[in-house]
Amino acid sequence: LSPTYGVGPEELEYYKEGKYFNCLRSNVQIPFSQVNDDFCDCPDGTDEPGTSACSSNGRFYCQNIGHKGNYISSSFVNDGVCDCCDGSDEYQLKVKCKNNCKEIGEESRKKQNQVIEAYEIGLKKKKQMEEEGTRVFNEKTDEIIRLRKEIDPITQEIKELEVLIEQKKSERELENKRLLNEKEKKDKEIEGTDQQQHQQQQNIDQPKEGEENKEVVGENGENGENIVEQPEIQTSELLDAISKGKDDNNNINNNNNNNIDDNKNDNNKEDEIKNNNNIEKVDHTTVNNNNNNKNDLNDDDNDEEDNDDDDDDEEELVNKLQIIFKKIKSIKNSVYNFILPILPNRFISLKDMGNLGGLESELSKKRESLKEKENEIEKIDKMLKSDLGVNNVFIPLYSKCFDLATKEYTYSVCPYEKASQGHTSLGKFESFGDNGKMMLFENGQQCWGGPKRSLKVLMECGQDNELYDVQEPGKCEYTIKFKTPVLCSEEHLKILRLEGDHSL
Amino acid sequence: VDTSKFKTCKDSHFCKRNRVSHEVGVMNEMKSKQNFNIVEGSIKLVKQENTIYFDLQEQNQKSNLLTMKLEIYEGGIVRMRAQEKEPLLNKQRYQVQDVLLDTIKTVPIQWKQEPSKQSNTFSFKHGEKECCYVLVQLVPFKLDVYIMNELAITTNSDNLFHFEPISDKPQPLPPKEKKSEEENKEANQEEDNNNNNNDNNEEQQVSTEGYWEERFGSHQDSKPNGPMSIGMDFTFVGSSHVYGIPEHTTRLSLKSTTGNGINEQPYRLYNLDVFEYEIDKTMALYGHVPLMISHDTKKTVGVFWLNAAETFVDIEDVTTPVSPSKKTHWISESGIIDVFYLTGPTPSTIFKQYAYLTGTTALPQMFSLGYHQCKWNYKSEDDVKQVDNGFDENHIPYDVIWLDIEHTDGKRYFTWDNNNFPTPADMQNIIGAKHRKMVTIVDPHIKRDNNYYVHSEATSKGYYIKNKDGNDYDGWCWPGSSSYLDFTNPEIRKWWATQFGYDKYKGSTPNLYIWNDMNEPSVFNGPEVSMHKDAKHHGGFEHRDVHNLYGYYYHMASADGLVQRNADQNDRPFVLSRAFYAGSQRIGAIWTGDNSAQWSHLEISNPMLLSMNLAGITFSGADVGGFFGNPDAELLTRWYQAGAFQPFFRGHAHLDSRRREPWLFNEPYTTIIREAIVKRYSYLPLWYTTFYQNTLNGAPVMRPLWVQYPKEANLFDVDDHYLIGDSLLVKPVTQQSCKTMKVLLPGQSVNEIWYDVDTEKPINAGVIEIDTPLEKIPVYQRGGSIISKKERVRRSTYQMRDDPYTIRIALDSSKSAQGQLYIDDEHSFDYKKGKFLYRQFTFKDNVLSFSDASNKSSTSYKPNVTIEKIVILGVQKPHSITCNITGKEKLSFEYDSTLSKLTIRKPDLLVDTDFIIKLN
Known about the structure:
Chain A is an alpha+beta fold. Chain A has nine helices and twelve strands. In chain A, strand 8 (424-433) and strand 9 form a beta hairpin.
């Protein structure tokens, strides 16, 4: 056997005939006659490139002219199985190997070209995805700046509106008091003139409202004997009861009261949400869960605690304000309602009430708009802060879903979000792994007698974004392959092209 | 394991009745032991039958008359049989069939002391020598086996001989005379209904409870034949170690179950499918061999209890006047008393005697000694191809890929899932192109589906086991409602064998071999996950009579099928079975069933396999990695290392377990696992030779140390070390995070030297402490041995056939060594016609000679394989080396003085030529 049999082209120079042979990868020297003599002398197996003597670590080079040369394990040499397409590994003729390198080579080159073509298309698509990604990224960045800018004036407007409403409310309070007093006066005047002027005179001498009240009660049929009642106390008790008891509001039945009810509901909702947020903060100090579904008003999905805190402060403020506002409103309304039946129609200032309602609805509109913008900011912020790959190449996959129908199930993978097998959750998006070649979904539906379901999406270069080959290598631990242009790389294309060149 | 699903002695009434001496609080009358006496004048020697007959009668029980037969078989085996002298015509006791070889022969009996009126004893020789005899005592009956004039085994010395005569079920007497048992029962029931308890009645109920019917859980046993159990005690005099009666998860040296305050369950022998079995339990498992071997420094003897019914064995340490002894109590539910006394007196003679009775291990095809890759389940043809390629890509040798139940069309065996396995023959041919094999599973339960040809044919032919009412037995297994073929019927076995024909088993090819699972039999909704004992078999016997034989017969029929499918019938079968019985070694491989991915299960695999090896089941293994659960990389790696040095080497895993092909755990694990498998393949000539030697001498392939060093009492409890053949000592690492460990190198008495096979350094016998990094498999070659290896790594065993040998000679303290090498075509029966080589290597006085080891002077087998390297350890450097073969007069060599290691380079001697090599 020639000493160079089975030697690869890049190592040929080390197998030049001489007295000694130096083992290539170990510090051992042997007589050159022992190269390819079917006895393993070098610990690294390099003295037997053409035989199976160093089968544990040696390698044999198939020249494969017409196809491409490659190394096989020395253990495959003369083992009765044709491994090289030129048949050079089976020279002991235990088996007749055809030289079919030409056919295989042609086939392979065709395939290789197809692969390269596909790869090129993949790369083009990847560029498009990058472009789209960058465009979207910039748009979103601009949008977030714009939104942030828009927030300030709205916040200012809200503040102004709140002050205005406050003013209006106090004005109305005063007006109501004035009206009340006026009415009292008028009533007294009327009573005084029409009925018992003398008695009225006494009342004027002892200007205590309670007595008047007492009088009223007395009129209703109790007694007129106890004169030392304190009507002021009664009034403040009443107010207390009104401000405390929600039931009192239920009696109220006009337009304005709807407004109050709305406010009350909003308030409760916000309390609830606040509670939710607090719980979440306890449960997931670092992990952040999407709260979109639960939460209309407060679409927070912040990665940072600061944001949470800001939000909370703001919310607290809003809450406090609303509570105060509500108190005032309810006092106002209660008083208003209390006196309404006795007030002559001309005193009811419906127009004023309408104006206040208008302001309030404008305030809530503004708040809504603020909330919307804040939500939008958060959404964009979340996206921009995600791992979007080099040149934002993953952005086109953001908030998209991909399906794969097998005999039994339809699998669905939504990058950055979730994955499912039919109606069964395979998990929420957790992270990228394996240097960006894998998407990990975890904490899916609990498996009977096993773990929570999870899915690894193994990504590889492809022309289109496409799922295939679902496996369940462990109980309820799934893998799925995902062809995507994202994974195509120039470097690998170069390698593919080189391989293509070498195969000639 | 859910122990409530399985019976203990207390749950089996026959055991409870027999074990009276062990149970506390059982009725006094039961405690009085039965005395059996030989009827005076009944002893007669029938010379033409080589048999002594006599009658045996239970004291004060005129009705229970037994007839007894005593025989001597070639090689020092005494057989004793007992059954009713006048059995009822309508009822019969089962005598185990088809287990003993039909080649066994009795020898003439020679009296030592003839029976006479004057004497209460008689005796006869069981061997050639005067010192070795059997002494029988008439009143009370006792049978003692003497070896070298010393008492070795006593029978019935504790009067535990128990024999419940078959009787007809007592008919109820007229209602007014409430005396019969039945009546008492009825009376009891009535009273129970009235919530009245009568002590007297209760007592009587205990004494007859379970006689004519018994319940376990929701299962009813109708027991139409009533009580018919048997029992006997054997005491191994002077012994403190007994072994055998596999399969249990206890240590190799069997533990005492009773006496001295010990209150364990007796060892149970009843083939069962035990889900998630646990370690150190005397519970029954999948298969059993009722052979017990006793060993002490003076002798090795055995008792073989040939009975296929449910059997319990109690073991107790007792002190006889002379020495400590092991008393054993054997109880079986039905069948005759049929006992073989193996008189030894050495380990090697015991194995010969047992093999003489039940046969040796069928010589495995070489491929089946390679590595087997299994998983429940490889899902599709693509999956199979990928796994197959995975081995080549990772340069890991393997021989067989396995398909579990999911490959079938709805668990109809002999069919394929058309979606996932549309072209099974092509798939097998792809595997076969690399000379690898495929194994598919075929279980004994048949899906009750009229469109399934096996079922419709079996139904129409009436081949199913019948339930107590005479209808086809219907039980639940993998396919759902299933019936079970009656493999105790030779006609049905024959029919079953034809199912493996290529015309019947569509999609099967000569590359396909078979795996028999669930053959205890496993019946998911049956009592103890098995068959109802009152189910009816061929010949009118009940399932209870033949239970432990069912899996054996099934295994046998399947293996016959594989032989018969080829026109030339010249391919050795390979069928792996889970259930087994005595004699299963003649059929095929056995594995320890559904173990778990736990260190304790790895650890126990060695004692379990050693126990099976002692009982003849030598081609056996445990699932590498553990069937249930997920081993971590370390456990899996250590398991591969252990499995590589166990006889049957297969990785397997549950459906729910994660994939664990050897390359899935990354480095360094892939490399270390590869090295373990490569080591396995390099020692295949040793494995093959050792299996061949078993066909000559019945000796275990995987051998407890005491077998090789019977005088070294410190080895009698050792079951974490073992020998492969007589030359390679292995102590696999079976502990987690094991950094160092002690190794006991035996043979101090004979100045044994051992050579670490990795470092090739010599070590004197004794206890050493070694480092055990993950890649270390502690393996030592015995000084004095010559081991043949094939050190070229190949894809599978087939590619190694023509590879040259490396001969490793390890010298003992007298600078000599010897060993054998067996070679044949590795797959056919031609070796039975003399087409083989059995070579003898001897190294003595600096001369290595290579000659024929067989008695046949010449052989037609010429494999054209050479020896490429001879390594001699513990030798001085020679000036030159010469050979007596023309053209090879001078051989080149290298010498390593630090190791005293001589390597003869490329002698290139043909393995079939005789030669002499001299170190000058």
